[in-house]
Amino acid sequence: MKLISPHSRELRQMVRCLELYYRQGRSQKDIATAVGLSAATVSRLLKRAFDDGFVRVELDLPRMEELETGLVERFGLRDAVVVAAGGRGDLKEELGAAAAAYFEKIAANGMRIGLSCGFTLYQTIHQLRERRFRDLALYPLSGESTLKQVDLFPNTLVGMMAAKYRPHVQAYALPVQHLLSLGEIERERRRLLRDPEIRTIYDAAQAVDVALVGIGMIGEQTPGFCSLAESYGVSVKRLRQLGVVGEINYQPFDREGRIVDRPEMRALMRRILSVGGDRLQALSKRTDRYVVAIAGGRPKLEAVRGALAGRFMNVLVTDEDVATLLLRKTA
């Protein structure tokens, strides 16, 4: 994108459009008439002003500072973001907006970003500002393992996020595996990791500067992890019998935050190239890394509590109800 000279006619037009649009609240059609431009040119100038950083958007989302401080102190977090209950819209959308604003506060040009999966993370990416950063490297925190289910997997979300920052972004993918037996899976993993390009992506995904992850609950007809578990012969009922209360990046954990590594679970857990729970824990301990978990709603309370017990993240974005119950139950 070419730079605009500080004395150029185009810059003067842009400033005039900004004044009329943001300070006087006039429509683009009215602005076009007032300044003698086409509506399409006004739209282009406003968009370019946004892309070039002349316009900053501050989201005025209500936050609960007392609860945020309580979560940080109680669970040893680096930071916490709590959105008010009973907001104006869908909870996942509100959590996504809060997480997007937080990401834009901590991210910087040239960072390596890792993405997990899920609808709340989709909402986060959806609400990021376009071209806010340059030279990001985006990595999926896991590959995919099915040809039959299309969902918001990490590779998909990496592509979505790359579209926000193109062309100044590098985006990577991890391969799909659709094997069922543990023996086949282990052989395929070894084969894939002998490929230098795949190995480089896999290793880089485990050392990102910022990881954005969702926390999954264990429930009937829950897309993602539970649906995949069913395809590997592990029912939701069986997951609960094994003590699984939630999952993070396809890693199942119990209420104490321990990864549930049982023989019948191993094909499910090893089916993809994935950044493991132990690696998320290691990143969370570092003062120069962010592992931001985004999850809310009372049905996810048990899963969020287990993830906190396991210290899989150092930043939590959640809602007032969950934050209140977390602090009450652990008091």
Structural category is alpha/beta
Low-confidence parts = none
Q: Give the CATH class of the largest domain.
A: Alpha Beta
Number of helical runs? 15
Q: What is shown here, in short?
A:
With 331 residues, this protein is of the alpha/beta class.
Tags for this model:
single chain, 331 residues, alpha/beta, Arc Repressor Mutant, subunit A, Rossmann fold, 2 domains, seven-stranded parallel beta sheet, three-stranded antiparallel beta sheet, 15 helices, 10 strands, globular
Q: How do the strands and helices of this protein lay out in sequence?
A:
Elements: H1 9-23, H2 28-35, H3 39-51, H4 65-75, E1 79-83, H5 91-106, E2 112-115, H6 119-126, E3 136-140, H7 154-165, E4 169-171, H8 182-193, H9 196-205, E5 210-214, E6 216-217, H10 225-231, H11 236-241, E7 246-248, E8 251-253, H12 266-270, H13 277-285, E9 290-294, H14 301-310, E10 315-319, H15 320-329
Parallel strand pairs: 1-10, 2-3, 2-5, 3-4, 5-9, 9-10
Antiparallel strand pairs: 6-7, 7-8
Describe this structure in words.
- By secondary structure, the chain is an alpha/beta fold.
- It has 2 domains: 9-51, Arc Repressor Mutant, subunit A; 65-329, Rossmann fold (3-Layer(aba) Sandwich), CATH 3.40.50.
- The protein is 46% helix and 12% strand.
- The protein contains 15 helices and 10 strands.
- The chain has helices at 9-23, 28-35, 39-51, 65-75, 91-106, 119-126, 154-165, 182-193, 196-205, 225-231, 236-241, 266-270, 277-285, 301-310, 320-329, and strands spanning 79-83, 112-115, 136-140, 169-171, 210-214, 216-217, 246-248, 251-253, 290-294, 315-319.
- Strands 1-10-9-5-2-3-4 form a 7-stranded parallel beta sheet, sandwiched between helices. The chain has a 3-stranded antiparallel beta sheet with strand order 6-7-8, covered by helices on one side.
- Helix 1 crosses helix 2, helix 1 packs across helix 3 (39-51) and helix 5 (91-106) crosses helix 6 (119-126).
- The radius of gyration is 22 Å and the shape is globular.
- The termini are far apart.
- The mean pLDDT is 87.
